[in-house]
Amino acid sequence: MSLAEKVRQIYQQQFAETPRVFSAPGRVNIIGEHTDYNGGLVLPAAIDKAAYLAIGPANSGRGRWISADFSDEVEIDFSRITKHPGRWPNYLLGIIDQFRKDGRDPRAFNAVLAADVPIGAGLSSSAAIETVTAYAINELEQYNYSKLDLALLAQRAEHEYIGLKVGIMDMFASLHGKQGHVMRLDCRSLDYYYAPLDLANYKIVLLDTGVKHELASSEYNVRRQQCEEGVGIIRKDHPEVKQLRDVTTDMLETHKGMLDPLIYKRCYYVVEENKRVDKACEALRQGSLDKLGLLLYESHAGLQYDYEVSCRELDLLVKLVKDETFVLGARMMGGGFGGCTINIVHKDSIEALVEKIGPVYKENTGTELHHYEVVTGDGAREIS
Ligand code: GLA
Question: Does the beta carbon of 223 lie inside 6 Å of ligand 1?
Fold first, then answer.
């Protein structure tokens, strides 16, 4: 049974009514990491793993929400929307809170939620839940928000309700995804275009470290501040600079002496990573997969040494594939401190790769290595 059918069936059993069912996917990011909140460039794609929400009106002003994955159930009083002591309900509550802040008043609803986006793997399982909720409420209440408005609303929910100052990439990709394509998104102008993800005999494979270190959320917000600190100093001489996206290599080098060495490293990584996104788009266009692969390795080195958001497990996985001729490139993906590496692997060698490095990874970390072959998918939608 598909997850869409599962949530529909549970809803029918629990509420004796037929719900509407919506889905919103997780995402991968080919390149352009930690650039989104710096107004920079990213190259994500939506995947075929998603969050599914069966939803329908609740008559009493109180909604019952069921998480099929956690076998958990909560009752929500819509006249008092506040943070929930449990974790998952807050992803839905944050969205309601934002609609209210927009002057809307979504009616109470019942819901059944399930997802097959692996949690903590850096595939944006939380953004998928937030966007499916925002998308579903928008449809139910006929608010007519655009996908971009919904992405921005979901981002605000994550900032204010979850406390993570994320960029726009995850929500944007979850709403705008298109099967077979990546999106080249300019996170300053929010202009984007789709580019076919044509990898000939190669596939995108994720290698999952199976770890998520505590540092992930605190260091994320610290990185953001460090970037802003760099901008603040450069801006004194260049008032036109609003975000790191506006900083050129020349500007950065001229200001090197004025920046704390740590802040310089952070800024250097972001400025270079933005350039790599354009180079990667060019490489994809030309079918130069070798070039694309090298850019991934460069990106990882920047994330490891300059931005310092990698970890031992991620570095080990990149190191283990680096000398394999059938792997063109690899890097850590997403916020960092755990989750997956993204790899470009020859389609005939995926199993061999996992068989070879799996035991080495386990021996070094004590953790089983899981892998996922990425299949791109469409963005948020209603499932009829
Ligand atoms: C997380 C955030 C995104 C982005 C990435 C790093 O996934 O949610 O906004 O900043 O980290 O590129």
Answer: no
